[in-house]
Amino acid sequence: MPSAHFRAGVVIVVRHPDTHEVLAFERRDARGHWQLPQGGLHDGETPLEGAWREMLEETGLDEHDVELVSEHPEWLVYEWPLEVQRAKGGMHHRIGQVQRWFTFHPRSADLAPTPDGTEFVAWKWVTPEWLIDHVPGWRRGPYQAVLGQHR
């Protein structure tokens, strides 16, 4: 599904198995804006490898902290608004992202991620509804497709 005009990436959902809340992270560059950990794939990296790498880089969590429970069965695509296309499109003239979504459960109730400080500065457990309502509108489609199942 990745193409020349869509950046291939992954999104990580850490969903509490008891409360069904998800871990949301506050962006460093846009305080008050919350999202799930995500990132682009490296050359030759599988989506699952990318998910584990991004999770460790952005949240400090690894296989000792969480376990994989599912992978969304299809790639999800969204286009960036024009101002984001100009900023992120680069020499490849990308217009958006295509992503694989992975859901993990914590291995312990006292899970405590460590935001990387570069992209994220804070974290909290939130309902899927809350997060869907608080991501930028242009990202909302994939969030609704995956998190809307847990409403």
UniProtKB/TrEMBL annotation:
Indicate whether Hydrolase appears among the record's keywords: yes
Keyword flag Hydrolase: yes
The residue ranges of the Nudix hydrolase domain are 5-148
Q: Which UniProt keywords apply?
A: Hydrolase
Sorted alphabetically, which SUPFAM superfamilies does this protein's record hold?
Nudix
Q: Which cofactor does it need?
A: Mg(2+)
Listed Pfam families:
NUDIX
Q: Which GO terms describe its molecular function?
A: hydrolase activity
- InterPro entries xref list: NUDIX_hydrolase-like_dom_sf (IPR015797), NUDIX_hydrolase_CS (IPR020084), NUDIX_hydrolase_dom (IPR000086)
Q: What Gene3D superfamilies does the annotation carry? A: Nucleoside Triphosphate Pyrophosphohydrolase (3.90.79.10)
Q: What is this protein called?
A: Unannotated protein
Q: What species is given as this protein's source? A: freshwater metagenome
